[in-house]
Specification:
Blueprint (H helix, E strand, L loop, with lengths): L12 E12 L2 E12 L3 E5 L6 H9 L6 E6 L2 E2 L6 H8 L1 E4 L11 H5 L1 H5 L5 H14 L16 H13 L5 E5 L7 H18 L2 E5 L3 H7 L2 E6 L2 E7 L9 H8 L12 H7 L1
Parallel strand pairs: 3-8, 3-9, 6-7, 7-8
Antiparallel strand pairs: 1-2, 1-4, 4-5, 9-10
Helix pairs in contact: 5-6
The protein binds adenosine-5'-triphosphate and magnesium ion.
Magnesium ion binds next to helix 1.
Length: 272
Amino acid sequence: MIPAENNLPRKDDFIAVHDLGKSFGAVHALRGISFSVPRGETMAIIGPSAAGKSVLMKCLVGLYAPDTGRICLDGEDVSTTGNETRKKWAEKTGMLFQHNALFDSLQVWENICFSLIESRKLSRKVARDHAVDLLGLVGLDPDSAGLRPSDLSGGMQKRVGIARAIATDPEILLLDNPTAGLDPVLSNHIENMIAAIAQKRGTTVITITNDMKIARHRYQNLAMLHDGTLQWTGPTTEIENAGNAYLTQMLSGSSQGPITMRTGKRQDQLFA
Ligand SMILES: Nc1ncnc2c1ncn2[C@@H]1O[C@H](COP(=O)(O)OP(=O)(O)OP(=O)(O)O)[C@@H](O)[C@H]1O
Ligand SMILES: [Mg+2]
């Protein structure tokens, strides 16, 4: 594990997280996480289920206030929710939630441009045209603009969530499993799009993914969480020499290693 003090925020860090802690009663979802991402770079977050990945993202976007530690964006402390600095950065951040979090009472295009209409007062006509453009970018046809999220397949809903995340042309893009449930061709298309956004617009991207191939080959940096702690972080080019047993097991998907699953008697009998 990388000690927090070795991973203190550097002056040129755009996203800097230091010693972040967040608990829900007895559940310690994050136990002193520290990492950083330079402006315009991409980072994949990996880790087993319940490691704290989604909680970390919700802290980054300002939905959860950390119990301990600090989050700095471009040198500004945004650890406290509800203040003006936090709100300013929330507006500069686009987020795809793990379960999309689309409003079923709104049409697809209204979901995509919700923040543009509410906060930036874009006219409905301009907003709808913008939404149709974004739908094209994620491979959906203009007819889907007028549908309700519940009329869409799971993969289509996911793509609407991605379109909403990029609708404001954010400086920071946070994506919780953008390719989960998508077929390989569509996954590839979405990852190409994410890379193009980072490269052409200079967007800083953090993506949670369960696809180790994507994490290794599509992102510049990697962070691995396990049980609320950071097991490893660094450039993906350094993974081979990381020498971290958790990381090695996560990347290989092996059942042998320090990451264990609590299994019942039935399971033990099945594999005996
Ligand atoms: N609002 C909440 N209230 C109580 N516990 C929570 C809350 N949100 C998350 N947790 C708990 O925090 C821990 C980490 O959850 P999190 O959603 O971050 O996991 P994850 O790494 O995203 O897992 P997965 O890969 O399955 O999505 C879990 O034990 C979860 O039950
Ligand atoms: Mg999650």
